[in-house]
Amino acid sequence: MVANAGIGILCKTVDMSLADWRRQTAVNLDGVFLLMEYTVPAMRRAGGVRSSLSPRQPASARQD
Question: Which pick of 3, 11, 12, 54 has the fewest CB atoms within 10 Å?
């Protein structure tokens, strides 16, 4: 399993609304948690678990 999908709200953190912050963290963190919660038990039953959680920020979300 590879869990590296996410979103990035393209603005400075100080300009981000609380609603956007919550949406971004819900997609980026809750999405990975739920994926793991529902897939790991099935993977264990099948004989093993291999996962890759990527902390890398997608290029489209970077503000260099």
Answer: 12
Point out the residues of the chain with pLDDT beneath 50: 59-62, 64
Q: pTM of the full predicted structure?
A: 0.57
Backbone angles phi, psi at 62, to 5 degrees: -75, 145
Rounded CA separation 4/25 (Å): 13
Written as six digits, the tokens of 43 are 């993977």
Residues written for the chain: 64
Residue recorded with tokens 């971004």: 24
Task: Give the span between the Cα atoms of 28 and 46, in whole angstroms.
Answer: 27
